[in-house]
Amino acid sequence: MITSDLQTTVARLRQLIDEATVIVPFTGAGISTECGIPDFRSPGGLWTKNQPIPFEAFMARQDMRDEAWQRRFAMEENFANAKPGRGHRALASLYRSGKVPALITQNIDNLHQVSGVASRDVIELHGNTTYATCLDCAERYELSWVKEKFDSSGRHAPDCACGGYIKTATVSFGQAMPLEAMQRAEELTKTCDLFLAVGSSLVVWPAAGFPLMAKRNGAALVIINREPTEFDDLADLVVRNDIGDALGPFITH
Ligand SMILES: [Zn+2]
Asked: Does 253 qualify as catalytic in the annotation?
């Protein structure tokens, strides 16, 4: 069933949520667009203007590391000012209700954590851009520290005391997927009886694998996304409404 009538959407969603025992949300860029975080991959998005810096280039060249940090600081206003949207708040409400044990996200904006989901219960497939780590020793660095070193060195990316390179805690193109997060996401997906894909085009690997995995394990599948996805035919409910409008009624405080 595909709905775009808001009343029908909310009624159908409510029924599926009420019937479910374990709900696993899977979120992508669409949930954060109302928060001022651009969808990097969308037409006109940042990645169509600036080619992403592949991990190999970041590791090989100081000027690429400088450029990566330059770009990240240029985005700081978007990330620093972003507040959770209605979609984040609704999922946080379901989390508090006890039906959502944890959630899986492709987003790097930290907004699920800000909305009240404990960090340990946010499985980040693409990492997190609101802090940095050393690629060798995994020491955590705050962006304010990196910015200060960057500015005081004539705009050069600083290195860790151990000599390793410091990078936002995101997964870059060409960088290995975080194995532990992938395993946890798989295990979680197999435990749910309702899989809620929200704001993801479900194209990029590994995102594409999860709805199928949930469905094969007998879960109901709901896809809330502006654009059609490859999995719409498999879904028990496809919602074409705005994410905030569709999930807003599920915010409980
Ligand atoms: Zn280090």
From this structure: no
Report which residue type is found at 176: A
For residue 133, the CA-to-ligand 1 centroid distance in Å is 8
pLDDT digits (tens, 9 = 90+) for 76-109: 989 999 999 999 999 999 999 999 999 999 999 9
Write out pLDDT tens, residues 53-75: 999 999 999 999 999 999 999 99
CA angle centred on 48, ends 224 and 75, rounded to 5°: 80
Nearest-Å Rg of the Cα atoms of the chain is: 19
Element (H, E) at 27: strand 23-27
What strand order describes the sheet that includes 166-170? 140-141, 127-134, 166-170
Ligand 1 center to residue 236 CA distance, Å?
47
C-alpha 143 to ligand 1 mean position (Å): 15
88, 112, 126, 253: the active-site residue: 126
Helix (H, G, I), strand (E, B) or coil at 152: helix
